[in-house]
UniProtKB/TrEMBL annotation:
Protein kinase domain residues: 1-96
Name of one Pfam family that matches: Pkinase
Protein name stated in the entry: Protein kinase domain-containing protein
Length: 96
């Protein structure tokens, strides 16, 4: 990791999108909460998007779609509906 990237990672430590959900209850970090944060950083590197509920929900949906058990996979309509719920509100186009 470059020095600049390392500085960025350190600066974002503790940021809400990087914190494991269980930290709200446990109030203490451990190696598993660190691995959660690492996973979010890897997702950010792969997607170029900052962490947050939208990114994590999209990943969960994608993993549900590729479940090894066909019966456990959602219907296409369910996937579209969940994507609609996840997508951010689009700003209205500026008038010319």
């Amino acid at each position: 990791m470059t020095a600049a990237a390392n500085t960025n990672v350190i600066a974002t430590a503790g940021t809400l999108g990087y914190r494991a959900p269980e930290l709200a209850k446990l109030k203490s970090a451990n190696t598993k909460t660190d691995v959660y944060s690492l996973g979010v950083i890897i997702l950010e590197l792969l997607t170029g998007k900052s962490p947050g509920d939208e990114l994590l929900n999209t990943l969960k949906l994608a993993l549900h779609c590729v479940d090894p058990t066909p019966a456990a996979r959602p219907e296409a309509e369910q996937v579209v509906q969940q994507l609609e719920e996840i997508k951010p509100e689009l700003a209205p186009a500026a008038a010319d």
